[in-house]
Write a structure and sequence with these properties.
Pfam families: SRP54, SRP54_N, SRP_SPB. The protein is α/β, with parallel strands linked by helices. The protein has helices spanning 2-12, 25-37, 42-56, 67-82, 110-125, 139-152, 165-178, 196-209, 226-236, 254-263, 284-292, 297-307, 310-322, 328-340, 343-350, 353-362, 366-377, 381-385, 392-402, 406-439, and strands at residues 98-103, 129-133, 155-157, 183-187, 213-219, 241-245, 267-271, 279-281. Strand 6, helix 10 (254-263) and strand 7 form a beta-alpha-beta unit. Helix 15 runs antiparallel to helix 16, helix 17 (366-377) packs across helix 19 (392-402) and helix 19 packs across helix 20. The structure holds guanosine-5'-diphosphate and magnesium ion (MG).
Amino acid sequence: NLTGRLSDVIKTLKGEARLTESNIQKALREVRLALLEADVALPVVKDLIARVKEKAIGHEVMSSLTPGQAFVGVVHQELISIMGGEKEDLNLSTTPPAVILMAGLQGAGKTTSSGKLAKWLIEQKKKKVLLVSCDIYRPAAIHQLELLATQTGADFFPVQNGQKPGEIGAAALDYARKHHHDVLIVDTAGRLGIDEAMMNEISELETLLNPIETLFVVDAMQGQDAVNTAKAFSEALPLTGVVLTKLDGDARGGAALSVKHVTGKPIKFTGIAEKLTGLETFHPDRMASRILGMGDVLGLIEEAQRSTDEHEAKKLMQKVKSGKGFDLNDFKAQFQQMKKMGGMSAMLDKLPAQLSQAAQNVNVDDKVINRTEAIINSMTQQERVKPEILKASRKRRIAAGAGVSVQEVNRLLSQFDQAKKMMKMMNKGGMSKMMRGLKG
Ligand code: GDP
Ligand code: MG
């Protein structure tokens, strides 16, 4: 699976000081497979791999990261940039009514998304919205939209018998102008596959209505097939954006990359449920994490990058490695590091479910972090560096100063001792000894 592949990537690069052409070969292959498994189209995968390679080689590895983490970080960044980097908003800056034309295959989610969009515009943007359906082939589809209009509080423009799509569109636009609607959403008919008659029909509508947004609606579950559909629609129409639907299914998000790559147009919304509230604005960074399938581990990496003072981190690592000279000041610094990263609970949120469970069992919560800091703050420098001088009277003074009990001071000191022992063990006997130590 994906997460497995990426942790393999991290392992592959263990112990490397710098990312080089030769040591990232295997990692690149894993990423390539991971992307294909996520349903990203082959040409997109190739392009992405080339970019990652270029960015990764010679990449400086921060002391707070392993080379594997740094590499995955590069992959993540490139995924984001291939999806357009920043989130892009719906454009409504035109003389009202702003026309939004919905295009896409049958079943992609055009009608549902029209309803969701109407709700979003009414509730979030306080707009007056008119809905119209040009799907004259399926009376049920028109009724479906009418129902959505009722549910969202949008106005609905009814179709007269025998009207052609162009006539319906023109009449609706005229009505929207007269009734001061801010937005006119035009739902259209789709076909099961790319079809010339359909393309001609929607092109004519586009020319006639001159929409500010022409949104290509595509089903994320289509995976690789989304590429061909996206290509056909972007060649026939001046698309302005994409709505990627059905991401609540087991779609792995690869379509997001492919569609952006092929059309060159930003994804503006995602459909995440059948119901009317199931519409979200699109965030490239979140989608990149989804494609990598790693929860928000990457967020954690970024957090570390931001909050670590490189020099401090190096010094601390050195001490942790040697176990020498590690005192209560360093112990406090470790806890402060944790706090900078948003505390234990924020860190737990970002870990994948399994890891998070394990971390919770260790039982370090934010209160403990704060208390630890308070206790160490109440110690003199001498006490921090030489904790063995801490006898009963000093402990009582510290406890009073920190507003805790003497037992808590003792607990902290024994935690510190354990941490120190652990470091020594790691240093002497390596991991296996440490594991034995933990069991016993
Ligand atoms: P259209 O032919 O393009 O108009 O597609 P519809 O809007 O009629 O949607 C086709 C089916 O997909 C319907 O059953 C919708 O309820 C469903 N659907 C649309 N968007 C989503 C979504 O984001 N999530 C889920 N789970 N279902 C969706
Ligand atoms: Mg429809």
